[in-house]
Design a protein that fits this description.
121 residues; mainly alpha; two-stranded antiparallel sheet; 4 helices; 3% strand; globular; Nitrile hydratase accessory protein; CN_hydtase_beta-like_N; Nitrile_Hydratase_acc_put; CN_hydtase_beta_C
Length: 121
């Protein structure tokens, strides 16, 4: 058992150490959110409201709310706050998304995905 407190997160698989992630990107989105919160980009109540809103939007659009899409909503909430706070605009986020897709397409399964300048073309 660890001495650090865990953040109660309903619907997220956890073990004694904290959240358990299905994919590496989920852990990265989680870590980025905590880092941006720690830097003061947003308050935790602001984060919770934004995430809740993203989940409600998804449910209204037909998301079955099985938990499998939780981190997609998490990422949408993070991107929304980043754009609302002026850290990046939707165009920049789209550019990185497209570059990531390009990098993933050229990467062998199981190898780490690395962005290169040519991924942004």
């Amino acid at each position: 058992m660890t001495d650090r407190p865990t953040i109660p997160l309903p619907g997220i698989p956890c073990d004694a150490e904290g959240p358990v992630f299905r994919e590496p990107w989920e852990a990265q989105a989680f870590a980025m959110t905590l880092a941006l919160h720690k830097r003061g980009l947003f308050t935790w109540p602001e984060w919770a409201a934004t995430l809740g809103d993203e989940i409600k939007r998804a449910q209204a659009a037909g998301d079955p709310d099985t938990g499998a899409t939780y981190y997609s909503h998490w990422l949408n909430a993070l991107e929304r706050l980043v754009t609302e706070k002026g850290i990046a605009d939707a165009g920049l986020l789209a550019r990185y998304h497209d570059a990531w897709d390009h990098a993933a397409d050229r990467t062998r399964h199981g190898d780490p995905i690395e962005l290169k300048p040519e991924d942004f073309r």
